[in-house]
Design brief:
Elements: E1 7-11, E2 19-23, H1 29-54, H2 60-69, E3 84-87, E4 94-99, E5 113-117, H3 127-141, E6 145-149, H4 158-174, E7 182-187, H5 189-203, E8 211-215, H6 224-228, H7 231-234, H8 240-251, E9 274-279, H9 285-297, E10 302-307, H10 322-338, H11 344-356
Parallel strand pairs: 2-10, 5-6, 5-7, 7-8, 8-9, 9-10
Antiparallel strand pairs: 1-2, 3-4, 4-6
Helix pairs in contact: 3-10, 4-5
Length: 357
Amino acid sequence: MAAKPAGRYEMDTESNRSVTVELPRRASWRLVVADVLLRNTVRRALDSLVWLCDHHIIPRRVALWVLEHFDAMLFVLLPPRGTRTMRADFPEFRAEWVWDPKTAPAPATAAGAVLYMHGGGLVTCGLNSHRRIVARLSAAVGLPVLNVEYRQIPRAHVVTSVGDCLAAYRGLLDSGIEPDRIVVAGDSAGGGLAFGLLLAARDEGLPTPGALVAIAPFANYDSRRRFSHFNNRTDSVLSARILDLPIRWGVAVNGTVDPAWSPVNHRFDGFPPTLIQVGSREVLADDAHLLAARCREADVDFRLQEWDRAPHVFHAGADILPDAREAFAEIGRFVRAALRPADSDDRKVTRLKRASA
């Protein structure tokens, strides 16, 4: 498939209201190479894993054990040099502050923050796997990032995962950070949880954060649309079968998925400015399009960006991919435009008083 030119196009939604899709740039040659390599390695490996599990060659309990402990094996993935980290665990789950001191203040003195939910299909990854991504995010937006290791399958249902994210959001509010200076963000499963968190916060009557950023969000737990989507053949990392595994293993109850669990089935009235980034050939592009349509229906100020031939969460390759570095820069520009400036003196004094209370 040829690279797409930069620009934009209009996409019709089911409600007959069009959505503008931005095409930020043509794929770099490095991204094209990465797309081909991932297709012939990661995609094949994951498809093989599904086959082995479906044919009971690998027992489910063994696969779940490996996935549950996968993040612990990634302790060797160090953040960029100079990055600061600080544990900030909650009673039921772990969390970690990550910030780049060159561009972001320390959490104790910051007048804003990013609340981040990592990806991993609701079944794997955590603080180690995403430390580099959130460090780059901190540098891009100029804020410290609270990375949340919410409970996952098989220890928790997605409803519990959303509850953990909500608890982390309450923690930021209780620390004295103004809601309009909080960015809720996440990738893949974490991107879906970011939308779920905002829905839960709205139901609880909590104030709305200042912005929402979702990278390739996994937000529809009914797999039928993805199985018939064209991108199910073109995605270089994930397939509908791969994404259906955690749904069958821990989301569905007695083989049934409640539509209310999927953020794509809700209205987004009152949501903050929202940025959605996804690869043009990803199977999760369908989830991104559905979320954008819900934003359009609720008159939410949003932007949907499709990155040409970008693999799933290509941001992780920012060390070598110019496309990924530009995607982070786009997030930075979006967040700075969405958040109103902090009141430097009065708010800092209030923040410090609350932190020492």
